Amino acid sequence: MVNSIFIKESQKSETLLINEVSRLKESQGEQIFKFGFGQSPFFPPQYIIDTLAKFSPRKEYVSVQGIEELREAIANFHNHYDSLSIQKEDVIVGPGSKMLIYCILAAFKEADAMIVTPSWVSYEPQAHLAKLNVVRINTNYQSRWRLTPELLEDACEKRQHKERPAILILNYPGNPDGLSYSEAELQALGAAFRKHNILVISDEIYGLLNHDGQHHSLARYYPEGTIVTTGLSKWCGAGGWRLGVALMPSALNPKFKQTVIGIASETYSCAASPVQYAGIQAYQVDSRIDDYLFHQRRILKLIGQHVYKALKDIGTLVHEPQGGFYLNPDFSPFQEKLKQRGVQTSESLCEKLLKDTGVAILPGNAFGYPDEQLITRLAYVDFNGTEALAGSEKWGKESDLDENFLNEYCPKVLEGTARLVSWLS
Predict the structure, then answer these.
(1) Has residue 84 got a pLDDT over 50?
(2) DSSP letters along 63-80, please?
């Protein structure tokens, strides 16, 4: 009925695809070590789940921007944890931060969308869907895959249409790399963004999972030009609930915020009412949330350190993770050995690794790397988060977690890592 030449090119997200492949192989009886899909292994606290159940009968449409009480709670929450000065009027609630990022990009008639490599898989496809011009800024291993003022300056100089507005997407702790920025780095970047009048989407969805609880928001150093996006998916373990947040700068042109809300009204109408009411409870500054975050952070830090050291010890190029649950290993030191097995790209590496060992990781080309670079993303999340949280609580805050904890609560992560190391060695 519709000729293919009239249909846009759009592929399924690599992260969702690897999850489907892993499930299929498991259903066929194969043992799979699921290091490909970046879903939190933790569940929301039970009292928040109970709140969602309580409000499940709520079926009405609510404000496109989000329930006022929720927006006020979100503002107070991030003012407390991120030392910001957000008002409820600055908050937009949507069905996941992914949708909000798209609405922000779609608000431009034209613009350069500056995307830092490596980047989350959906930034560039969303920019193309919004018909923006994509400008890639390539980083390197030596700079810890971080954007620097020098790289930004070079990219700005090379822009072909400097009259266009520029919007840059920054993500930290990073997906796929698990790395963050120091205060000094953010101050320097803030000055560079200000110099070039760049609007920044600072995707801080993993911010509260900084392993040492030391996340610093770019909005503290560039408040007039930073839109912070976050949500319940990662720190609250509620990815499927689809509740995302955009914190808009109060200095931003009011027309821009209204345009974003207008696009939201024509696409998703509002985030689900029951989830928003549960969100009011989730976004309370509460000692229960402090404890919940403490245990998540130390579990993820312990696991991340174990996998990092195992890969580092055999010669993999990899940086120590600082937040979230990802590593960004570069297997180029094994290039000749892998070539003898018919592996010459990150995609073929992941395919053969899955076939030979059952370990599922994602190829670097999904994150903007050239396919010939043997770079991948590893999500160290294949463990029972509920049992691990209970174990950490039982361990006690005063006692450091150790290898015995990993053996008891994270055996699949240990075995999957051992299989990967053995396969490379």
Answers:
(1) yes
(2) -TT--HHHHHHHHHHHHH
User: Above 70 in pLDDT, residue 241?
Assistant: yes
- Are the beta carbons of 350 and 306 closer than 8 angstroms? no
Nearest partner of 422 among 332, 372, 351, 359, judged by Cα = 359
Structure tokens at 351: 């395919």
Q: pTM of the full predicted structure?
A: 0.94
18 Cβ contact partners less than 8 Å away, ≥ 6 residues apart: 36, 37, 360, 362
Segments making up each domain of the chain, as ranges: 10-39+288-424, 51-284
* Cα gap 118→204, rounded to integer Å: 15
State the Cα–Cα distance between residues 366 and 65, nearest whole angstrom: 32
Provide the 3-class DSSP secondary structure of residue 11: coil
CATH fold, domain 51-284, is: Aspartate Aminotransferase; domain 2 (3.40.640)
The CATH number assigned to the domain with range 10-39+288-424 reads 3.90.1150.10
Instruction: Write 352-357 long-range contacts (CB < 8 A, 24+).
Output: 353/420, 353/423, 354/21, 354/25, 354/32, 356/423, 357/33, 357/416, 357/419, 357/420, 357/422, 357/423
pLDDT in tens, 260-278: 999 999 999 999 999 999 9
Task: Please tell me the predicted confidence (pLDDT) of residue 5.
Answer: 45
CB within 8 Å of 262: residues ≥ 6 apart: none
Q: Is the preceding omega at residue 249 within 30 degrees of 0, hence cis?
A: no
Beta bridge pairs of residue 199: 167
Neighbour-count burial for 250-265, b at 16+ CB within 10 Å, e otherwise: eebeeebbebbbebbe
Q: Which positions ≥6 away from 308 have C-beta within 8 Å?
A: 318, 319, 320, 321, 327
Residues 6+ apart with CB under 8 A from 397: 294
pLDDT at 47: 98
